[in-house]
Structures are given as structure tokens and as C-alpha cells.
Amino acid sequence: MRKTTLSVAAVATMALLASCSGGTEPEPAASEPAAASSAPAASGSLVVWVDENRQPAVEAAAEDFTAETGVEVETVVKNFEDIRADFLAQVPTGEGPDITIGAHDWLGSLIVNGVVDTIDLGGRESEFEDVAIEAMTYDGQLYGLPYALESVALVRNTELAPEPAPATFDEMVAAAGETDAKLPFVINTAGADGDAYTYYAFQTSFGAPVFVQNEDGSYTTEIGMGGDEGYAYADWLAEQGQAGEGVLSTDWTYDIANQEFSDGNAPYTVAGPWAISTFTDAGVDVAVDPIPSAGGETAAPFVGVQGFYLSAQSENKLVATQFLTNYITTDEAMQALYDADPRLPAFSTTAEAVASDPIVAGFLASAQQGTPMPSIPEMGDVWDHWNAAEASIISGQAKPKAAWDKMLADLDTTLNG
Amino acid sequence: MSTDTTPPPVRESHARTWEGTGWGFAAKLVLMAAVNALGIYVAWSAWTVDQWGVLVGSLALVVVADVVYFSRRRLAGKYIYPGLVFLLVFQVFTMAYTVYVATTNYGTGHNSTQEQAVDALLIQNERPVEDAPTYPLTIVRSGEDVGFAVVDESGQVLVGTAAEPMEAAAGATTDGDRVTGVPGYDVVDLGTLLADPALQEEVLALRVPASQDADDGSYRTREGTRATVYSSSLDWDPDAQTMTDSTTGTVYSADGETGQFVAADGSTLTVGWRVGVGLENFTTAFTNPNYAGPFWKITAWTFAFAFLTVASSFLLGLAIALLFDDKRLRGRRVMRTLFILPYAFPAFLSALLWQGMLNANPDYGIVNSLFFFGARIEWLTDPWLAKLAILGVNLWLTFPYFFLVCTGAMQSLPNELEEAARIDGASRWRHFRAIQLPLLLISTTPLLIASFAFNFNNFVIVYMLTGGGPRFTDTSAPLGHTDILITMIYQISGVQGGSADYGLASALSIIVFLVVGAVSAFAFRRTRKLEEVL
Question: Is residue A248 one of the residues assigned to a domain?
């Protein structure tokens, strides 16, 4: 680290010598602190990885920062899908950014790979939604600055179903049956791949969380989907699936589910805020309700949290932390992030400010009823097996208990070697 | 050379001559300066990140370049050198690096060096003391020492350095909650701090003990304006290579075999580092029951897939080319263009479209609704039908290429041969089998082999159409009936999420490389034989 400073100083000295060949003595290189003054003295720069949507907001926050501190902020636009793998690969080589935007469920792998630093909000944790801080916390330490929440909720076509959605899944299907819509309900199943993420609220309503939770809501590495609760959920999937009632189907992909709902073929769907514009563009008036319970308990969807991570190998940690805690954690910057890419704000005052929109309020209510998606490293290994098991049960290709047992056995092999 | 004979006039190379305008030499100097600058820039960058291999390599390349281009001899070298450099940088280096990764445990939890793992573990285990308040902080200096000055709840100023625990400072002045002066210290303002990277490092590394008792923790700051009391539960001893958990007393020692800190009871710390594991990854690929079974099935399917794709698309392309070679056919030009269309679509887009069209539900899947009378056919979820679907879609994508190639090759065949055959009374079929096909094969066999090698690693079609599914039911690995070796490697590498194992993935790619290499070598020998026969 020191080496860079040295070499930069050496280059600067050489450049000065070259330019000062006229005879004037070059000033001493930058190692001497500039005379104490309040005027910003430019030094170094921060590199922030950000996706295209959120770049303008980060740049806006960076403008103030640069004006006040003289530190340039360089935003590097990356595909959101690539950021996690690139961050993991590049931080150890010293090529990574100082700060990156990311999702909270990356946290586990960022931690075991040792690429992320902790963040000290200096007691300002209470200014954020609880679930957001909870999600970014791992083993008692805060590792990211949360700024947005996202979760799925029940979206209702107000023309077909003007009444707020019933509290249980069966009542909802019954209510849908009274309309003349082709389908009672659509949900993304990702084709034959399965989509345990979107289905998760139904699973929690049977009391079968993906991992067993401690009392404080943090996750252990023990699978919580086994036991009678898990089997009950598997049975329910089979009952509602293609070999049963036919309410659920693996024929639906994300596009097909959205299309059916947009065409008015189903009064209800489970979707995230990201799909709302698809529906409203198609001329459907929507309302957002909490997800009805299928198994009796509260249907808690996964809450994803978006935030900023600080690289463990950053050479500008102090400046980067300064930027995050004093320039991103402000009403203006949080509002700008919301305007640039509308996701539910994790910063409470911003959340209140935008909750006047009933759709935002609906998603916020759903998120507040949800649980953070586990950020333990094991979570990344669960999806494949979990999705496949659900899809095979819904399609009727596998018996629910057999498929569920195979999934549990596979997870045991994958997680415990 | 004797002195009494005049040497024959030797024409100087343009690159050396100073005669005339001298532009040749000047241009060469500029080019070589640019090459040298680039090489030195790379070496410099490598130095700043401690990459000695790259440093030595780039310097060597620059020196050799200078020797080759400024020497009078080495004419051959002047032509070969650029090609050799590209070969070294883009092929040999990549291969060598893959081999290196294959002998390490690089992957989730073993992502970097031991030094960085230690850093990360210390970061993760140093945390704010519970309910510790946050104090407004001012950085102060006394000579070389950097210290912290904070204002506590009662408005009292505390000051301390790494060597001297926090103590009340008599005679300090404050402005609100900011310290403006402490006797014996200079106050460093924020602007100065932010302008000085070296000072920032010092401030970040500074721990000011809260009291004489080490268990009380120490003050530290993360961003220069606030300080909190932290305590660390891990102590790193670089000489003994051990981490000691100060709350439980457990000693974790560095294990160079596995790249982890291991305690006596076998428990490990979260972050590990990269170490060499020899050939373990290669044996895992064949012996781990999770991978070994699927590995052979996937290898067999990979060969079948590549062979069937090439065979079917070549035959179809050839058949259509023959058809359109018949001059009695009307509208040949339009038809030819239509047949080439699939070739013009990006493969990944076509695969996605086909995935939608092959939806089992005839309401959504146009294939079932148009061609199978609305029957429900599970194109993508039945193991055999999924394989058929992949072959079919790939046929649709690939046959236009062979159609083009065969059309071109056929038009280059001399007409006389056909006439001679006809005069000799050969049938159309005989003419095709004995004359046209062998001549065609000479020019198309290399393309067939190349196409085989391409399809052997045809990631896009499998990934986009079936994602490797439907899954095997007899293994815990997330692999499926339509996975080919390259998608299996992708799955194991963990790039798309889940736990990554780059070491194992590299070992597998080396195996695939050997297989493809062997097949190509064998096939090229066969091609040569084919040419000898004729």
C-alpha cells in the first residue's frame, strides 16, 4: 500500500522536474501535508461500482462530496449480475473498487472470502428500517450500508377483484372463482426450473423456514425445511399443482405469468415492485396486499436488501467510510437513489416520504411482514436443489414426500460435504 | 573483408537509413518508444501490486524486443516476434495459469493470500463494544505521533495516542463538540486528513487504549470524525502463525495443507487462503461419488451431442445444397436466402425463443399447438425429449452453415467431371457417391472437425435452452441430463452463485482440453489420409 503512495510521489516528482526545467525549484512532493486550511485539497479518488440505473444518484451524492472534500468519486458502471463474481475475484488482486453496490444475500460469500469490511454507522442504525439493518448484519457486525428493500407481495387486478384480498389462499382462490377470469391466480415458476424465492411466503405460512432461525432472527446453518411442516408444504404444492387442483403450474415463466395477469386472465398474482410497470403499462389497475396465508401462519416473503459494501482491500477506507456514512446516509442522497431506481427505501424518513403512494405502501407492508433472505454462505447452495424439488412437485413428476426427502438429502450432502 | 576491395554497396533497410528524409528510422524509434513505454508501464503497475512474475515477464519481453529490432541480424526474429508475444500472452500464459489454479484449492473460502485472510479475520473480529457511545473526534499530532481527542458526555476533552491511553486533557479548548486545541498537540483538520493518504492509513490503524486495562478495548475511528470503543477477540501472532481467540483462549494455527486456521478440536476460522493441493482436484473429478457418476454420463452425452449435431446438420445442409444445385428449380436465390436466415440470428436469442416455443402447455408453446394438435408434450422436462429438443434446435441453428459451405464447395467442382460421368453412363447417385461427395469432403472435413470442437463446448445452446435440466435424480450435484462438460464446469465453478470451486473447475477444463485436443489430432490425421487416397 505504501508502495503505491511512494511510486505516485515519485512519478509526481519526475513530472514536476520535467515541467520545471526552466530553473525553478520543484515543490516538495505530496508527502508533506498541505498547510492546514479549510479549502478542499484534492487527493486520491474513490472507485465505486454501480449499475446503470443507480449511477446518476450515486454521482449526485458524489458531487457534494467532491465539492466539500476534494476527493474525486469515479463510478464504474457494471452489470448488476456481474458485480458479485467480479468483486470476489478482483478485490484480492488489488484491482477491485473501494465501494460496490450489492445485495445483502451476497454477504456470506463476501465474508468467507474475506473481501468486505465492516461499516460503523456511529449509532445511526435506528434511522434505518429494522429489517434492513438485520439483513446487513452478520455475526453481530454491520457489513453494508443498506439503502433499499425489496420483497414480493400479492398484486390484485382491481377491476376483477375490487375487494382487498382475503387472508387465506383458499379464500382467495374461491374469490377468484367468482370472477370469470380464466385462472384464479398466476405466479412465476420460472418454467420447469422452479422459483422458491417467489413461493417462499407460502412456505413460511406452513412454518418451514429455509434455515432454522435463532431467537434474534439470525439464521443457523441448520435446514429448517424438514419435518412435518416441510412435508405439509410439499403436500400443499402437490395438491395445488398440475396433478391436483391445477392452481399452480410449471408452465409459467416470469414473462408468461406477467402476460396472463396483464391480459386480465387472473385477478391475483405474486410479484415484486419491478413488475408493476409491466402491469400498469398494459392498462391494468393494480392494488398491492400482503400475501395470503396457505398454511395458517403469517406468510412472510423474503426481503432482499440492497446496499453499499466497503472493500476489505481498499486503500481509501477512511475516505470511503466518510462518503458512505456522511454523504450517502442523508435524506437527499437516499431520495435521489429512490428517484433513480424506485425500490422501497431502507432509510426510514425516505420510506415515510414515499409511502404516500399506495403501491409503495403495499410493498412496504409486505416487506415489514417478511424476513430477510439468509445471507449465510450456505444460502447460495440451496437454490438449485430447492427450486428443482418444488418444480418437480408442482408438475406432478415426483411424489411430494419423495421429492422433499431427496432435496433434504441433497442439501445435506452439499452443505456438509 | 579485405581492405583493398571496395565492398559491394549494401542497400540499407528503410528502418535504419538516415539518408533521404530519415523518416524510416524516425518511425521505428517512435514505435519502439511506444512499445518500451507500454512495457515499462506494465512493469510498474505489476510492481505496485507485488506481481513479480508479470514484472519480470514484461521486462524480459521489452528487452528482447529491443534486442531483436535494434540488432542488424535476427531478420527472422523481426517477423516472428509479435506473433510469439501474442501466443505467449494470450495462449501459453492462460493455459499455464489454468494448470496452476487446477493444483490449488482456489474457491469459496480460499479466495486470496494468507495475509489478506488474516486482515479479513481481524476486521471481522474487531467490533464495537456493546452500547459504547460514539464520540465526536478530532485528530491531533504531537511530533511523529498521531493521537485522538474526543469530547465525552460531560463535555470533558480526552486525548491519547497508541502508547498513552485516553486521559482528560487539561487546558483543551472546544468549539461545540469539536476540539480546537490541546496543549502539546497540533490539531489536524479534516481537510488536511482527507488530502493525505499516508496520514489516513495511520489514523485507520491507530488504536488508542481506553484505559490501562486492555480488556476495556480501544478507541478507533472509521472515517475520521467519530470514534467508538472497539475490542478485538482475535490476536494474530505472525511469528508463531497462530490466531488466538482472547475470549475463549482457543489457539488456531495456520495449516498450510488446507489453507485454514485450525484449532486443536478441528474447528476452523471463517476465512481461508489459497494453497497448492497437487493433483487432488483431478482425482476428485473421478472419485467423488457426486461428480464421478454424472461425469461419465455427461462425457458420453457431450460426445453424442457434438457428433449428432455435426452429422445431422451436415447431412441436412448437404441435402438442401444438392437440391438447390439442380438448375431446374425456380426461385433458387430467394429460397437460399430464406434458408440462411437462422444463421443470422444470435444463437442465445434463438435458444431463448425456442425455449418459449417448446413450452409443454399448448396455450403457451407454439410447437405443441401447431404441430402436435395441442397435445401436451414435455419437450424440456423429459430426459430424452430434452436431448432431442437440444439436437433439434441446434440443427436448426447449424444446418445453414453447412448449406452455405456445401453450396460453395459444389460450385467450385469442375463441370467436366459431371459430363464425363454422364457420358460413362453413371447414375446420378453413383456420380454423387463416387465423385461429388469425396471431393466435397476434402474441403469440408476440416470444417466438420472445427464444428465438432465448437459443439463440444457449445455452452450457449444448453445453458439457454434447458439449463442442463432435467436434473439427474441419482446424484446430489446440481447437474442434469442435457448438461455437457462445459456447462458442468460452469456449474461447478460457482460463478452464478453458490459455493465456487475454481480449482476443480480448472482441473475439469484441462481434462476437456485434453479430450478435444486428442479428438482434433486424430481427426486431422484421418483427413490427411483422406487426401492421400485421392
Answer: yes
Expressed as residue numbers, the domain containing A206 is 153-300+376-416
Q: How far is residue A3 from each of residues A9, A315, B341, measured CA to CA in Å?
A: 10, 11, 57
Give the nearest partner residue to B194 out of A43, A249, A313, using CB atoms: A43
Most A CBs within 10 Å, among B196, B357, B464, to test the A interface: B196
Residues A247 and A339 occupy one common structural domain: no
Tell whether A281 and A404 lie within a shared domain. Answer: yes
* CATH number for the domain that contains residue A287: 3.40.190.10
Same domain, yes or no: A273 and A224: yes
Predicted model pTM? 0.78
Whether a cis peptide bond, with omega within 30° of 0, leads into B289 is no
In a domain, A185, yes or no: yes
Cα(A292)–Cα(A208) distance, integer angstroms: 16
Interface test with A, best of B97, B106, B112, B502 (most A CBs within 10 A): B112
In this structure, the answer to whether residues A99 and A219 fall within a common structural domain is: no
Q: Is the per-residue pLDDT at A302 higher than 90?
A: yes
Q: At a CB cut-off of 8 Å and minimum separation 6, what does B317 contact?
A: B398, B399, B400, B401, B402, B403, B404, B405, B406
Are A41 and B495 within 8 A, CB to CB? no
CB contact under 8 A, A92 and B194: no
Q: Would you state the pLDDT for residue A19?
A: 40
Residue A403 reports pLDDT greater than 60: yes
Rounded to 10 deg, the angle between the A227-240 and A379-394 helix axes is: 40
Beta-sheet strands, E only, within A188-336: 211-213, 219-223, 268-271, 286-289, 302-311
Q: For chain B (length 534 residues), average pLDDT per consecutive 10?
A: 57 61 80 92 86 87 89 83 89 90 89 88 85 86 87 86 87 82 86 84 88 83 87 87 87 89 88 90 83 86 93 94 81 81 82 89 89 88 93 92 90 83 85 86 86 89 88 85 90 74 89 81 74 56
Q: Can you give the pLDDT at residue A42? A: 47
Domains, chain B, in order of start with CATH, read 23-103 (1.20.58), 126-255 (no CATH), 286-532 (1.10.3720.10)
A242 in contact with B, Cβ within 8 Å: no
Q: Do A410 and A380 share a domain, yes or no? A: yes
